[in-house]
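Notes to self after the call with IL:
- keep both proteins in one doc
- input above output, always
- annotate only the second one for now

Protein 1:
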Amino acid sequence: MQRKKVILFYNPQSGNGMFKNHLDYIIERYQDAGMRVIPIRAYGDAGLAEYLAGLDPATYQEEYAQILAAGGDGTLNVCVNAMIENGIDLPLVILPSGTANDFASYFNIPTDVERVIDLAMEQNYTRADVGIVNGRYFINVAAIGQVVDVSQKTDPTLKNSIGVLAYYLKGLSEVPDLKPIKVTLKTPEKVYKEKMYFMVVMNGRSAGGFRNLAPDSEINDGKLDVVLFRNMSLFEMPQVFMRILRGRHGSSQKVLHFKTSHLVLEAEDDLPTDIDGEHGAKLPLEFAVLPGRIRIAVQKEAPREEAADGQRDRKRLERFFLSDGR
């Protein structure tokens, strides 16, 4: 009987760049399970999309068992866009090897290669929504504002050495230059007119290592969580920042938070946008949701409230501030 195939889509530059040291182990584990690995190295948006475009729509699910995506949120974004654009519905196994790995943290997916392959062999899957913004798909977050492109500006060497803390430090360095921007948010339920510094449209719960940016977000509820940070003084920013770290910012008058299945965002000025850690489209932006579009391999046990690495990051950041943020 012909072995089923597994597509391994990996980014050799993600995180500390050490993933390639695990290639032989991954191939061995799948071969022992009677499956054949097809490795595809990430280089831009073309490689995986071209491969998936060549699959037979009538038979690919009989021929292929899974797609294993190794990298950060940007790598997952490329993978999911390629899958949806080519009509592919295969289970997705995530091997987090990026800097923040926010989407994987929602499912409490381990970063250890052995444990991820164990998870892949269990074949326990859950459905997850996919967001859409101006025709492009996103798995975790679309961010808009003057500090949301910090992941693109942060030095890769610094990211590899101190992780998500590099994002925080880069973002803090830009705070003095912030200016509030007038925006209009149109939803089926309500129209909002606000002055904001930045905002996020969340499918998951965390972004840039902030583990509780949208603490009430559900990955399969058919809704997006919108979190907008209103105009505030420099004196108020540290307190709001501390609330973000602790997931308590929803009660702040400086934060607008709501759920919706459709959103149009307009602004008087052009603003930087970021989709899953990469450059996004220009305004105006139109958001929608594909409910339950992808299958994610997950652990059978319930996820923890907050991953250990998230707790460490939060405690390190709290030491930067004298205020307790209450």
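Protein 2 (the one to annotate):
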Amino acid sequence: MREAAPPGQRTLGDAALGELRSLTQALIAARPDAGEEYARFLARARRGIAVPEAELAAWLGGATVLVTGGTGCIGSALMAQVARWRPRRLVSVSRGQADGWPLLAGAEYAQADIRDRRGLAAVFGAVRPDVVFHLAAQRDPGLAEHDVHRTVTTNVLGTRQVICSAEEHGVRDVVFASTGKALRPYSREVYTASKRAAEWVIAGAAVRGQARYSAARFTHVVDNSIIAQRLLGWSQGGVIRLHAADIVFYAQSALESAQLLLCAGLGARRGGLRAHALTDLGWPVGLLDLALGVLARTGSEAPIYFSGYDAGYESMPFPGLYDPRTAGEVSPLLSAFEAAGAERVAGRAADAFPVRFEFGPQPDAPLRALQDACVSGEPAAVRAALDALSWLLLDAMLTAAPRETLTRVAGLTAPFESELSPAYRRVLAAIRRQAEAS
């Protein structure tokens, strides 16, 4: 199939498409178990985790709860979960209603963009929340590479606006919805870098503020799967474009995600940010078998084309990202730096770990530079400022890491040094430099 159509082509000729179509049908016949992979993927939408009912009733019962992005996939699931513990008031604030997700009877729905300081402050002033769940974000990695300004102003500066409003109105608990991609110590990808920066913004508020801050990291959510949506769309007369044949990924349900947010809120501690991730995400999903399963289920004759990696998706992760000593023992959404400080949250199917950054005397200076770039509106300027911030965040994270961890990660990465990209060579050099200075 790669010989018939090498990667990197934006359009394919009729001859290549015909050969790919024939080879795809042969591949479906050769892998009859692919349908089971698709069924296993869909079944994950029914998964949930146990939550401590009495603790949640004590925390949320009679409280005023505000959810940013409460009309989206996970937001809707969270609203339904929170309602079970009878809050005094349950309010969603979002730019509008997302398609396909029902509104909850008895809840209130306000409209504001988290990037709009005055509009957001007006909602906080009217609601006066005790607890805030911050879910509103631009979540598509591919879109982030094309819509850099909206992604950064939403995911980073919008998060800052939520924190400012929470601080001004005396919110006691803030729970942030992050992403598993934020485990990377550095990334050029706009979406990943923006969510990593958002974790830093939250971590800074946790250190200086009186409120309790916590976060939950999610991986691929089956209920609102970008991958499944694209596969089903392409199967209707298009071309199935896969980055590579050997991709696997973890997945979880919207219900699990909402329940993890609740557990994260219960696990918050003053003085620092604790993030939470599901310990057991099950066996990862094979992308190729998922695509074959979709084609077999729909009866489509769409061809599969291995197109190579698009902008916003990484072909090779940093080799020292995971430590074999903890692999399988902690959530795969923790890096080797984070796994060293992880602790199992009793009875909650999750790992909790501190998110630490150590900056110099002016920790807000990098954020001001990013804000200035966003004022210009130039995508290249915003991207450059975000990348500069990402390097600073790498150094700030490494400064907070124990020397033993730094040495361990450097040792795990060293055998692959000749294969590293220039960016990852710079990451390795920074790790070694900090290990020597510690």
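Annotation: The chain has a mean pLDDT of 93. The first helix runs from residue 14 to 30.
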